[in-house]
Write a structure and sequence with these properties.
The protein is 40% helix and 18% strand. It is α/β, with parallel strands linked by helices. It has an 8-stranded mixed β-sheet, sandwiched between helices.
Length: 251
């Protein structure tokens, strides 16, 4: 079982990237479990026909003792989807919520029951508190990748996340594989990301172009892999998926 956590600033394109990677892996015949760790709880929306699925925290609030089937939704693409969800705004703690969701999945033996070949964690990286760092520690993820553009705030988040991975890494947990550049297409962007990667001491694993097919597919509640399987963009996602499975770099 390969366990990969994809971090990044809110809105940078984590869920888009992760869902397309998951769909690409599923189309290769792999069993994939995608776990959204973001109070926005829309990680797997494009795998589930544009619908938000019930979150672990919501289900726990409504039904104290849920079954695994209440928490895991099998998408049309074959990917098993989980959303940890968020707390009641202004009351709970989002990081604590992720810890609760992980504990529940473990208690119900989600990995044993679904036997995934790959687990993809889609994690909000703006605040790497104990809760949001869960996938990095405790043996949840093997590899961490950070989605970033050349914009300052997303590079700032990338640097923060890399520090968190490195500090846990000393204790033998997940390791940082590299950055995934999700381009915003402004002048000098590639160089800015190259410079940040060098400062962090990690490679730019992949350079994902901006492509309107992402929005077109999204409007239909689909990934690019499902909606436009023959497009260049789908090929980019498949290439990145293989890269994450195999190891190595593609610069
Ligand atoms: P996050 O999960 O990091 O909050 P999302 O994956 O929801 O971010 O992406 C935010 C928006 O950016 C999405 O609505 C999507 O349409 C757009 N987007 C992401 N990646 C790309 C891309 N490579 N090309 C075009 N649009 C993209
Ligand atoms: Mg998201």
């Amino acid at each position: 079982m390969k366990k990969i956590a994809i971090y990044g600033k809110g809105g940078i394109g984590k869920s888009t990237t992760v869902s397309n990677i998951s769909a690409a892996m599923a189309s290769m015949g792999l069993t994939v479990l995608q776990v959204g760790c973001d109070p926005k709880a829309d990680s797997s929306r494009n795998l589930t026909e544009g619908q938000n699925i019930p979150t672990v925290l919501e289900v726990l609030r409504k039904k104290g003792d849920p079954e695994l089937e209440d928490l895991v939704v099998k998408s049309t693409t074959g990917v098993y989807c989980v959303e940890s969800g968020g707390p009641i705004p202004g009351v709970g703690c989002a990081g604590r919520g992720i810890i609760t969701a992980f504990e529940k999945l473990e208690e119900l033996d989600a990995f044993g029951v679904y036997q995934p070949d790959v687990v993809m964690y889609d994690v909000l990286g703006d605040v790497v508190c104990g809760g949001f760092a869960m996938p990095i520690r405790g043996g949840y993820a093997d590899d961490v990748c950070i989605v970033t553009s050349g914009e300052m705030m997303s590079l700032y988040a990338a640097t923060n996340i890399s520090h968190a991975v490195r500090s846990f890494g000393k204790r033998g947990y997940a390791s940082l594989r590299g950055l995934i550049l999700n381009a915003k297409n402004f002048e000098g962007e590639q160089e800015l990301v190259d410079k940040a990667a060098a400062e962090i001491g990690t490679p730019v694993l992949y350079r994902m172009p901006r492509n309107q097919l992402v929005q077109k597919a999204e409007a239909d509640g689909k990934t690019v892999i499902e909606a436009f399987p023959d497009s260049d963009m789908a090929e980019h996602y498949r290439t990145l998926a293989k890269l994450l499975l195999d190891g190595g770099e593609d610069v």
